[in-house]
Design goal:
With 204 residues, the protein is α+β, with helices and mostly antiparallel strands. Helix content is 25%, strand content 25%. It has 2 helices and 9 strands; from the N terminus they run αβββββββββα. The relative contact order is 0.13.
Length: 204
């Protein structure tokens, strides 16, 4: 049988652990604007891992990206129970380049930016607005759950080396296939018209 003093020591250690756990447990919404975009009014938040927690991960076509392969956005995930490193068919997206202090001036209004915050999926798309004094990049994006809520973010140019940000430089493959189909249709209609003209001339 353990002594009374030993029981008291165990009880005290358990209480101290519970208290330390309560102190370390942080709430989902912080008082600081740098950590909670829900509290921003008209002032944009600094883009970081805390402020982008509830930002959307899907584009208008419901695509999700989690890596970059061959300078393209991609989505790959191994099935359950599969060994590490084995992936199914990879879904590719548009071409991207990593955003840096050397190429940020190439951004145009409406350019799409994706943020790799080392989580399950990239956050974004963020839409580029303009360059502010600093220089800082002003971007905006939608909420992950409430799509009507939009948030503004500031990206300091001097911190681009530390942040993994990618901006889209090419169009998605879907747009390219549509253009090819349109060209094929036009070429067929031109050939038909020429053939009809030749028939009329031969009859005359």
């Amino acid at each position: 049988m353990p002594s009374i003093t030993r029981k008291a020591k165990i009880f005290r250690s358990n209480n101290t652990r519970k208290k330390s756990f309560k102190k370390n447990k942080s709430p989902s919404i912080s008082i600081l604007k740098e950590r909670s975009i829900q509290l921003q009014n008209d002032e944009p938040s600094i883009l970081n891992k805390f402020t982008t927690k509830n930002v959307t991960v899907r584009d208008k076509n419901q695509n999700v990206w989690n890596t970059v392969e061959n300078n393209k956005l991609a989505y790959k995930r191994s099935p359950r129970g599969a060994p590490i490193g084995t992936y199914p068919k990879i879904v590719y997206g548009p071409k991207v380049e990593r955003l840096s202090k050397d190429n940020y001036k190439r951004l145009k209004k409406g350019s799409k930016i994706y943020y790799d915050r080392e989580s399950v999926a990239f956050r974004g798309p963020f839409f580029f607005e303009k360059i502010l004094r600093g220089p800082n990049l002003l971007v905006k994006s939608k909420d992950r759950g409430y799509l009507t809520n939009t948030y503004k973010f500031l990206i300091p140019v001097n911190k681009l080396q530390k942040q993994l940000l990618y901006y889209v430089v090419g169009k998605s493959p879907r747009h390219k296939t549509l253009k090819r189909k349109q060209k094929m249709k036009r070429s067929k209609t031109v050939k038909r018209k020429r053939h009809k003209k030749r028939k009329k001339r031969s009859k005359k």
